[in-house]
Amino acid sequence: MKDLTDPRHTAKRDGPQVLDAARLFRDHAEFVANFAVRLGVGRPEVDDVVQEVFLVAHRRGGFVPGAARPTTWLAEITLRVVSAGRRRLRRSREDADTEAVAAATAQGGSSPGEQAETSEALRRVQQALDTLEEGKRAVFILFELEGESCEAIAAGLGIPIGTVYSRLHKARKQFMEAHARLVAGPPRPLARSQTVTS
Amino acid sequence: MTQEPTRLLDDVTTSAGLRRDLTAAVRHRVPYDAGAGAARFEASLAKGAGAASSGWGAGTLGLGALILGGLIGAGLWLSRGPDPSPPEVALGGAGVTARSVQAAPETVLEDRVQETDRPGAQGPVAVLEDRSGETAGAAPAEAPEEVVEDMSERSAADARGDGKKARARKAARVEAARGSGDGAADYLREARSLQAARGFLGRDPAEALARAEAGAAEFKAGQFAQEWEGVAVLALFELDRQTEAERRAAAFLTRFPNGPYASQVREALDRQ
């Protein structure tokens, strides 16, 4: 468990302890990178997104502990940064899929067969995620893959908890349908964007 | 109160194939170089918060946002009444980071509304950029020194095989001399030193090792203990100091089995 009260990286103001951007970066840069990739950001852009997210966190004055967790709070910023960037750049989804698999393949410590299986699994998950609209996708990723609680997700994303349940329910249904299609269907080239909404 | 749903991974009614794929996705982490990212982040802050904005965020930092943000920031500042504390003096470099972090919240209390829909939400940028402008006079005085330092170190390292440790300690002291010494600045200075040390892997492992050990000593209470040790272990492998490398690699993997350098250290061990 991280010590959120470490005085080296907290700024005591009038109210609660605040985690500054540097501390947040140290603890959660990897989380933001992963979340961004799962939202469909290509590897070349990941660092730009991470930088942007923490600059926004910096501008907001850091994280004030509350109902949200640092991760869900950063997820909300990431979602906005990615959404805004996607609207402008309209980047190809091919990059995200191909690179997600390439990253998995590059991981050492397992046999080629295991690597291939992992790559296939990651490809299916990423493509199924790609079918989800961003809001649902964020909730699904945070709950199912990052293990966040619905309460923390609601607080982080600034939405009612009922909306989290609703989005999660719909996202699961859509994700499972897409995954089933991918499992049943013949192997196909990576990278088709299925639905890109913003 | 609604009960928390069961995760698909934990739900026995979920198909085995889906659970297997989700397990792979949960375990998979995108490798991200936090040290290099932190150094870039520091540089961005030192230049002004908008400097690192790429295409992913630059569109929201337009002129209109700047003007509106300035107005909002000024309004908030005026509505706050007189400030008893003296105005901050920006010193440039890492020191700016901590001060900017402290200063920003005053103007960034409410940007929960869609930033892209409300340009004024970017107000604090104007404030930060103004502050970065204040540092313009101080930063250049430091920059050439840094360049000369690096150049001299590099040429000396090429010329002689010894003396690396002494130079690395000197470099660490130069790094340590920068900034005000508060937590955030220490963290960012450490990240920058680490990035410099890591840069020597693959081309000058002796220098990488010397810098890693000097950095670990300099930042004993720092945030990158495992990264320093990871760089040192990899440098030892590159130097073919097998016994020491294997001993420290084993200790490293025991302490940090899932750290950012664990896979590289394992690979280095496997290659032996």
Automatic annotation (TrEMBL), chain A:
Key words, A-Z: DNA-binding, Sigma factor, Transcription, Transcription regulation
This protein's record includes keyword tRNA processing: no
Stored InterPro entries: RNA_pol_sigma-70-like, RNA_pol_sigma-70_dom, RNA_pol_sigma70_r2, RNA_pol_sigma70_r4_t2, RNA_pol_sigma_r2, RNA_pol_sigma_r3/r4-like, WH-like_DNA-bd_sf
PANTHER family: RNA POLYMERASE ECF-TYPE SIGMA FACTO, RNA POLYMERASE SIGMA FACTOR HI_1459-RELATED
Recorded coiled-coil stretches: none
All copies of domain RNA polymerase sigma factor 70 region 4 type, residue ranges: 123-174
Domain RNA polymerase sigma-70 region: 24-91
Biased composition (Polar residues): 107-118
A Pfam cross-reference name: Sigma70_r2
UniProt record similarity statement: Belongs to the sigma-70 factor family. ECF subfamily.
Transmembrane segments: none
Record's protein name: Sigma-70 family RNA polymerase sigma factor
Location of region: Disordered: 90-118
Matches recorded under CDD domains: Sigma70_r4
UniProtKB/TrEMBL annotation, chain B:
Region (Disordered): 87-185
TM stretches of this protein: 56-78
Basic and acidic residues compositional bias, start-end: 109-118, 151-165
UniProtKB keywords: Membrane, Transmembrane, Transmembrane helix
Protein name per Swiss-Prot or TrEMBL: Outer membrane lipoprotein BamD-like domain-containing protein
UniProt organism field: Nannocystis pusilla
